[in-house]
UniProtKB/TrEMBL annotation:
Protein name as annotated: Initiator Rep protein domain-containing protein
């Protein structure tokens, strides 16, 4: 926290991540989890969030669109996750 030109104190926020590590995915979505983590290089937590918040048909549609534009993408995981976040702003991704 700044007062004038000097920094007078620091404020740290520590968040608990244990909730995110215990996300369970139904067995029928294991194929999508594999595609998101191995082919599109999302982290496991990001992939699980997408699977829990986005319908399966929409996931497949978005992944297909990303595959078509893959030549123009610099960072595949960042682009993929950003697309899901933009299309599903209300979901907790």
């Amino acid at each position: 926290i700044k007062t004038g030109r000097k920094v007078t104190s620091l404020h740290f926020e520590i968040k608990d991540k244990t909730k995110e590590q215990t996300l369970e995915i139904p067995f029928e979505n294991q194929d999508i989890l594999y595609r998101l983590t191995k082919q599109f290089l999302l982290s496991e937590i990001q992939a699980k969030r997408v699977i829990l918040q986005v319908p399966e048909k929409e996931i497949n549609k978005i992944l297909y669109e990303i595959r078509l534009n893959m030549d123009n993408i610099k960072s595949l995981p960042a682009y993929t996750y950003t697309i899901f976040k933009r299309k599903y702003k209300d979901a907790e991704l």
